[in-house]
């Protein structure tokens, strides 16, 4: 998410016997990349009995596993439970579980969520004469060249590249360098997916649903 926001999740059902009632107010805010998920409780005055708070957290976590953009999991956000109400007869763990999930989905819809993509760090070793072609191939894959280091008629390129762009990279490198290139990769971090690509993925997800 890119914005902090607040939302209410209220679940109320009435049948012949006892009903179901759970009511929560949640505040969400973005966290730095790699911080994961944090759940904070700031309930005062017994607005929600403490026995129901774990159920709210479970509902929130459940909603996070299937985000509102193309159903991808949500990461790097803090969720604070700061208010709510309960019914002495109709409230239950199930009702607060559902209310937590409802409240989070509503908050996420207001928090301008974005799609992230995994970025890997590449170390590519090529003979001197193929340096230009190797750099060009990486650039065509939305790669960012970080450093080029010469060593005994060979060049070592360090770059970051979106994981999704590395399809067939091994074959391409062999072709570009006449079989004399080599590379190693490792996960680096997540970055915001370019809007054009994100919109295409979201549209495809809507069609499949």
Automatic annotation (TrEMBL):
Gene3D superfamilies xrefs: 3.30.230.10, 3.30.70.240
Coiled coil: none
A biological-process GO annotation: ribosome disassembly
InterPro entries: EFG_III/V, EFG_IV, EFG_V, EFG_V-like, Ribosomal_Su5_D2-typ_SF, Ribsml_uS5_D2-typ_fold_subgr, Transl_elong_EFG/EF2_IV
Residue intervals of the Elongation factor EFG domain: 114-201
UniProt keyword terms in alphabetical order: GTP-binding, Nucleotide-binding, Protein biosynthesis
One Gene Ontology term of the molecular function aspect: GTP binding
Domain Translation elongation factor EFG/EF2: 2-112
SMART domains to which the protein is assigned, alphabetical: EFG_C, EFG_IV
Protein name (Swiss-Prot/TrEMBL): Elongation factor EFG domain-containing protein
């Amino acid at each position: 998410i890119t914005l902090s926001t607040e939302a209410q999740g209220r679940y109320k059902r009435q049948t012949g016997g006892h009903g179901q009632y759970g009511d929560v107010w949640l505040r969400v805010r973005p966290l730095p990349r790699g911080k994961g998920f944090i759940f904070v409780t700031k309930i005062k005055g017994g607005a929600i009995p403490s026995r129901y708070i774990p159920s709210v957290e479970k509902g929130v976590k459940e909603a996070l596993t299937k985000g509102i953009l193309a159903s991808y999991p949500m990461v790097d956000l803090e969720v604070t439970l700061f208010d709510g109400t309960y019914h002495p007869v109709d409230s239950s763990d199930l009702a607060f579980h559902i209310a937590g999930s409802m409240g989070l989905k509503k908050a996420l819809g207001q928090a301008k969520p974005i799609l992230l993509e995994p970025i890997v760090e590449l170390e590519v070793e090529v003979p001197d004469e193929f340096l230009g072609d190797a750099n060009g191939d990486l650039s065509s894959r939305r790669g960012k060249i970080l450093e080029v280091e010469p060593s005994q008629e060979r060049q070592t390129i360090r770059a970051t590249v979106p994981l999704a762009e590395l399809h067939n990279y091994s074959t391409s490198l062999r072709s570009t360098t006449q079989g004399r290139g080599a590379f190693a990769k490792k996960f680096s971090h997540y970055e915001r997916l370019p809007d054009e690509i994100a919109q295409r993925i979201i549209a495809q997800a809507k069609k499949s649903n």
